[in-house]
Amino acid sequence: MPTGVPYVMSTVVPGLVKIGKTTTDRFDGRMYELERNGYNNVTGLRREFAIEVERYNEKERMLDDIFSKARVPGSELFALDINLAIELLASFEGRQVYPKTSTESKSKVFDDAAKNHQENTDIQCIPEGTYYLDRKRPPLHVEMVVENGALTIRAGQRVAEHDRPCRRPRTRTAARHRCR
Fold it and tell me: Model pTM?
């Protein structure tokens, strides 16, 4: 069975990662090329994790399918937490190519990525409490409450410049214009 190297790289854009594959003998050359020249107008690529596996084409295709909703169309770039990609790659059976196994074991990389992913997920949550939006022009005052991870705007508040109660329209044309 052919072996190859699926890899994940970070970019200068936070939250944008490159997931790709290459043959084992071309790995160092491919990393050098991407780190020096960038990819698809994105520079500052830095290798984060790579693993040599059997049937690497199928595994890379699986990664593409799993992260398809986060994919930047027409590229190998994905808008996702890099730790999630590293965690998935580290779970594959194979020989870790980068970082070199002498520095970090595959299981340590997996554990660190899982921990970092959880920390990043926790940071993205809005802390519970009451939040206010005050604006002079156009005049706007909104009170928002976060409870149990849900953001709620209390009833009866004006949340847009032309926000007003909607009356029942007499015709379809009136319905389109009255509630705007």
Answer: 0.60
